[in-house]
Structures are given as structure tokens and as C-alpha cells.
């Protein structure tokens, strides 16, 4: 039988008095909770009789009304205040609000200990607690059956949603995307809310964060233990209240499933990273690699190499999770801050990588690999495209598909220009321990002013003049001509792009 506030009032040994809100005495009481925190509604789950000594109870009428309204919205059964303790005077506005809401406010006679009320509620709700325990056992039984049947993670999430009677979404907190394959996505508004939610959010109650819903439904987000980058989003049926305690048990089951899946994924990532490392270092048996790629369904004729940089290395280290959940076969590894990934050249993989790596990512994609023998060239192509994306400030650049960058459409063009224009200067610098290339770059950067260049390099103006004459002699270019200046500037930019690959 359900215990109500009226039942507690009628227990003579408790001696509780009704101060206001008598119309709500039929509210069900599931538990008791003691709090003297300023915002106690954040730490309750609904159905509790909240007991307080009034230490942090607000004094103003407006604040007292706000407290009562928030407690009512949070599903609190009633408020019990210790007599002759620290509670300020209850205002008429507070009393009228209590009566209007039908929210019972009780007085705990002095010196009755709060624990006496807690024991009375516990004894009266044994049957309900037994039922709750039975429902909790069913949650873990779902996990046992899932393991025994080797069903998918999506099947487990669907079964847990049916048990809880609401929609469940396991999401990547950084992108809002579904974490497990074959699970439905969040609508765009909720996905953006998940991405934008910070740990400092104050819209929290009963251990869950509030998210925007649709109409009567209020979506909720709860963290998942040991998986800070994953969130559990709950969308209840209209007007239904989700039991936060059961929700925490479901989050625990999801945490166990995530740990198991991530263990397998990490094993696969390391094995595949080792293979890609050998490819990058050109120390592989071609036939053995082709055989392994065949097992992974990576056909070189339909595969591209990706090189990417971003400001958050943690995201690069977990990019394989996003590839897996989007059913994209991969090899990937991180080398000195540069992510390399070998993936099928199919629609959508660029968007997956871009979301996984974040807004700071600059991604370069090679031409199709065609064969293993072309892998070193694909590395140069992907690195060139990545450098080009960084120079242009764009998220993704495909080798050969972009408009030529000031006449440089590929690695070959850039290398040829550097060989023709800069190599003579570099050779001279090496042989004579001079600084012609550095002087040329400073000269062009300072609008071809001899004095400004000299000041920047801390040398005499005549020294700069002598060096620039040597540049003209070695390159055969007349620095008084615009075409020559443009060729020198473009060669320096091409060298910077090629150096960025290395």
C-alpha cells in the first residue's frame, strides 16, 4: 500500500503538524531526505519528504515562494521543518503558495529526531522497496542475457529503453552522435544541447542535467561512470517521470557495455596502427599487407590515405571509435601530432572525421591508393593536402581536386619550383655558411626595403644589398621584375608546404 503524507501525520508517535498545503496530504512518500543546502531540489529524486532545520532557508517572501515552487516541480512529496531550530519566519506569501500548489508543509515537533520519521517511512514502504529491488534485478538480468546471447549493443540499449519505458540514447558528448552503431540519432536540437552542455551547468536535479524537450517531455542527460566523453540521454513519455535511481542502474549497465566494447576496439586499433606504422616506414611484405587489407575489406583500388591535424590530441586518439560506429573500416595511427588513416573512399567519411576531430581539424586526403607500391606517394599527397587545408583555413582538402594554389596544384609542381629556384641558394648557403634564403625571405616580407630588412636581421644595409645581388646571380632572376619576385615568393611558400609534410 502506498504511504502518503497524511499517513505520516496520523502516526501519533511522530506528532507532525500541518502548517499549510493540506490539500496535498494525499501525496505519496517513497523516502525521506534531510538537507539544509540552499538549493535542495538539485539533490533529490522525487517522492521524498524533505526535512530541514532551516539553516539555509530563505528569508524573503519571493525566495521562499521560489523554493516551494522548485520543490514542487521536482516531485517532492512535502516539506517538514524542525520546530525551534533555525528556520526564519514563514511568510504569508509562502503559505498562500503552499495552499495553491497543494504542497504540504509540516512541522516536526522539538525534540523529535529526524531519524524517527525516516524509520517510519522505511518500515511502511518495505513492499515498495522490494518491488524496486525486483525492477533493478531485471535491469542486470538484461545484461546477463545480452552477454549470453552475444546480441549487439543496440539491442541492449533498446531492451533497457523498454524496461525504463522511455527513449534512451547513448551519445558522444563531443559530437552528439550515437555511440553505438545501428542506434537512432538525436534530433538536431538535442544533439546541439548535448555538445553545448558544460560541467558548470546549473540545470541539474536528482543527478541528471535538464535538456530542451518537445512540449510536455523534458529530456535528461546523465553522466556514465568511467566514460566522461559519453552521455546517456533519456526522453520520457509525455507526463511520465523517470525513476532516477533506476536510471543510475541503467547507466551502470551502459558503462559495463562501453568498457567491454572499448576494450575490443582498442585492441583492434593497436593492431591496425602497427600495420600502418610499418607501411609508413616502408618495411612491409607487400603480399602479406595485401592479404591483411583483404581481410579488413580495404581494397587499395578504392582506398585513400588521410593526414589530419587538430588542436586536441585526445580526439585524434579516439577517432577510431567514430569510424567504427559509422561502419568505416580503417587503419589509423598518430605520429608527432599528425593523424594518418587509411579508409575506403566512400561518401561521408570526410564528415565523420571532421566531426570526430573537431572544428580545429585540418584534413588532407590523397588520391586513391590503387596499389601498395604507391603508398609513399599517397603519404606525400595527403600531407600536401593537409598543409594546403591549413594554409587556406579550410577543414578538408582533397589532393588534385582543389583549385591550384597560385599555380601549385600538386607536390610535383611545388618540388619542381623549389628545385629550380631555391636549391641553388640552399646549396650556396650550405657551402659558404651564409644566409641567402633567410635574407630573401626577410627582404620579401619587408616589402623589398633594404633598410627594414637590415634592421630585422641586425646587419648593415650594404650586407643585405650584397646578398640580394648573390640571389639574383645564382637564380638568374632580375629582382627588378615583378615576375621574378613572384617566382621567388612562390618558391618560398612551396618550400614551407613541403617542409610541413616532413
TrEMBL record:
InterPro entries from the UniProt entry: CdaR-like_regulators (IPR051448), CdaR_GGDEF (IPR041522), PucR_C-HTH_dom (IPR025736), PucR_C-HTH_sf (IPR042070), PucR_dom (IPR012914)
UniProt-listed Pfam families: GGDEF_2 (PF17853), HTH_30 (PF13556), PucR (PF07905)
Boundaries of every CdaR GGDEF-like domain copy: 285-383
Domain PucR C-terminal helix-turn-helix: 436-494
Source organism superkingdom: Bacteria
Domain spans labelled Purine catabolism PurC-like: 7-123
Entry-linked Gene3D superfamilies: PucR C-terminal helix-turn-helix domain (1.10.10.2840)
Family per record: Belongs to the CdaR family.
Stated name of the protein: PucR family transcriptional regulator
Species per Swiss-Prot/TrEMBL record: Mycolicibacterium monacense
